[in-house]
Amino acid sequence: MPKLLLATTNPAKLREYLLLLGDLPWRLVTPAEEGLKIVVDETGTTLEENAKLKASAYADQSQLLTLADDSGLEVDVLGGEPGPLSSRYAGQGASDKEKMALLLSRLRGIPWERRSACFRCVIAIASPRGGIELCGGECQGAISFQPRGGQGFGYDPIFYLPQRGKTMAELSVEEKNKLSHRGKAAEKACQLLREIYS
Ligand code: ITT
Predict the structure, then answer these.
(1) CB 154 less than 6 A from any atom of ligand 1
(2) Given a cut of 90, is residue 196 above it in pLDDT?
(3) Ligand 1 atom closest to Cα of 9?
(4) Cβ distance 71 to 84 under 8 Å?
(5) Which of 6, 8, 13 to mutate to test the pocket of ligand 1 (most atoms within 8 A of CB)?
(6) Which of 170, 182, 184, 187 has its CA 20 to 30 A from that of 70?
(7) What is the mean pLDDT of residues 100-128?
(8) pLDDT confidence tier of residue 172, bands split at 50, 70 and 90
(9) Strand, helix or coil for residue 171
């Protein structure tokens, strides 16, 4: 089976992708397994630009078909912040706890009806020959008043899903994959991969 490189440094994201893409006729490999140590400067201003930067940097280095994503949380009352800056929201190296605390402090006093938010994920699939394809997915929800749940990563404990009556961090990885922004983008990525690259 040919290899497909999952170009992420985030172990929780990787875990989600191993399940989401597990049925594809590619052997899923990680940067660590391929001995790759790349730092990609996410200098783009959009998720699309940053997803492309990551996927093409890893595809160049590895010479493998490569999938990367850039994802983020958009909070309506904050004009779409933190958006592409989601991972660096409370400064480079800040913990998930610090990022959530900062976001909750920015939303202090904002009532439930105005706490709507959306997780977005853009996947880029880059071929070592230079071709690149994009697809995306979204998940609507609201920012809760305090964290709840111990699964997932990032902002999951404060991302409330009204249709489930739970935060994203109260779902198992399988349940999260069924409704998440990444799950929806990965479904399209699977179709693209089967159509274009098999
Ligand atoms: P890679 O770039 O190496 O893949 P990363 O964690 O830095 O890892 P991003 O640049 O895409 O990934 O940053 C996205 C940030 O947005 C992530 O660190 C979380 O804080 C947040 N985020 C994205 N998807 C999320 C999800 O499914 N659940 C919770 N938070 C998420």
Answers:
(1) yes
(2) no
(3) 3
(4) no
(5) 13
(6) 170
(7) 98
(8) very high
(9) coil
CATH of the domain at 55: 3.90.950.10
Q: Where are the beta strands (DSSP E) in 51-192?
A: 65-75, 81-82, 116-126, 132-143, 159-161, 166-167
Which pLDDT score, from 0 to 100, does residue 163 have? Answer: 95
Q: Is the CB of 16 under 6 A from ligand 1?
A: no
pLDDT band with cut points at 50, 70 and 90 for residue 181:
very high
Residue numbers of the domain that contains 113: 3-197
Going through the chain in order, the beta strands assigned E by DSSP cover: 3-6, 27-29, 65-75, 81-82, 116-126, 132-143, 159-161, 166-167
Average pLDDT over residues 82-103: 95
Residue 164 has pLDDT above 90, yes or no: yes
pLDDT of residue 194: 94
| Cβ of 184 less than 6 Å from ligand 1 | no
Please state the φ and ψ torsions of residue 110, each to the nearest 5 degrees: -85, 125
Catalytic residue among 41, 69, 70, 96: 70
The number of folded domains in the chain is: 1
Instruction: Evaluate the omega torsion of the peptide bond into residue 84 and state whether it is cis, within 30 degrees of 0.
Output: no
Q: Which residues are registered as beta bridge partners of 126?
A: 66, 132
Residue 75 pLDDT exceeds 90: yes
Which tokens is 30 given? 């990680």
